[in-house]
């Protein structure tokens, strides 16, 4: 039980003021009340991406993409890699959610993003399209943007930037800590049958983490007894 609580406290571990679990939180997690891990992953992935865009736009050298900035905070690369990897796990349905749920959530959010960003051709246009309503909500105004996953991600990015600023090393350090803890939670909480599929091939990082966590007694929200696959996952078996 203690081990499982350590895994599930990944948000507080990252964002408690002063790094002390008993301290107040510097930001609130808008995804905390959502059902399903796929929703949470995508909210945080969108928020992280918008923080990356903000850093890009403030870069005086005007780098062309999010991964070729001439100078980045120390934890930037880890944040980008972990965020992208967790989003990738949703597309592979290698998350604690039912495979059909993960697939539907991803498709719905992709449609949300397509609708919200139609006509945008640059990262500046993407940010300008999403941020105004999110910024108003983050400052205590209307919260209409929070009704969609894309809107929740945009609002979360504004709260993070309001608390830290995009060039603050603490933002990227805390995001790295969050994503690392979240990935461990996802790995331990995904049912054994899904991981066993990937043990038969080259394996996924999350599956190797699951093996290590299981041997250490970290079982997340699932257990080795949950061996049945969902029908949508059988295609990968």
TrEMBL record:
<dbReference type="InterPro" id="IPR007658">
    <property type="entry name" value="DUF594"/>
</dbReference>
<protein>
    <recommendedName>
        <fullName>DUF4220 domain-containing protein</fullName>
    </recommendedName>
</protein>
<dbReference type="Pfam" id="PF04578">
    <property type="entry name" value="DUF594"/>
</dbReference>
